[in-house]
Structures are given as structure tokens and as C-alpha cells.
Amino acid sequence: MSTLSEQELAAFSADFNKNDKNKVASRAARQNGLFEASFNDEVSKRLNHTFSTELDIGGVTDQKHSGRCWEFATLNVLRHHFGKKYHVKDFTFSQAYNFFWDKIERANAFYDSMIRLADKPIDDREVETWFNFAGQDGGLWQMA
Q1: Measured CA angle at 137 (ends 132, 138), to 5 deg
Q2: Which one-letter DSSP state was computed for residue 4?
């Protein structure tokens, strides 16, 4: 794997800045964020918000703004299967319990990685990634 040279980066930048449309798009992304600048309302209008399958599960739990959608979504799916198997309608799994153990597991993974990466500089890409990841609440489906 080779790194980009200063000359290559300068050439990419010059090529990008030749096109006035790129300058406008770049300014829009910096001012409004990439998501807002790239939002296409024509595509949004074509989305079908009608679902053909509905599950009789009672209510669902809401993460509000906790950043744990991955955990709530997983527990809502499990809740459906649990309710069906045990004939329980409004059972709720404890998100706090799972969240606690997720934090413990993340701390363990962080410490193991710090031991493994102890000889790397602080600005190493993997070290920085672990430092950025350590305190976050967000996650992925498979983390549940």
C-alpha cells in the first residue's frame, strides 16, 4: 500500500476546484453537513412508506435520543418472539441491563486493545479509532 504524495493531493485538489459545481457542492456540505447537502427530496417522494407485514406485538420500546437504536431494535425483535412463544403481550426486556453489560464488554475490548497496541504511537490510526470508540453508545445489530 502506498501513500499519496503532496503532489498527487495538490493535483486532485486542483482538478476538483476546476469545476464550479464542485465548489458549490463543497461549500454546501461544509455549511450544512454532508447529509443535508446531499438530500434529494425527489428520491424521498418515491419511497414507499406502506408496509405489507404487521406484527401483533403490542407497543414497542422507544430509545428517544439515547443513541442505542441497535439495542432497542434487537430487543423489540426478541420481544416479539418471546411474546409469541410464551403468550405474553406487553413484555419488555431491560435495556439498562444490556446497556450495562455492553459498557463492560466495550471496556474489556478497549483495555485488551490498548495492551496489544501499547507499542504504537498515540496518533496511530488504530489507536485513535479505539480512543474515539471507547465511550460511545452507538452500535450495530450484531453487538446485541
Answers
A1: 85
A2: P
Q: Please say whether the beta carbons of 37 and 28 come within 8 A.
A: yes
> The dihedral of CA 100, 104, 110, 111: what is its sign?
positive
Q: 94 near 74, Cβ under 8 Å?
A: no
In sequence order, what E strands does 49-117 have?
none
User: Quick one: 114 exposed, middle or buried, by C-beta within 10 A (0-12, 13-18, 19+)?
Assistant: middle
Burial (0-12, 13-18, 19+ Cβ within 10 Å), 8: exposed
Q: Tell the residue number behind the cell numbers 431494535, with chain if given.
A: 73
The secondary structure of residue 52, as a DSSP letter, is: S
Is residue 16 over pLDDT 90?
Answer: yes
The pTM assigned to this predicted structure is 0.53
Q: Which three cell numbers stand for residue 96?
A: 439498562
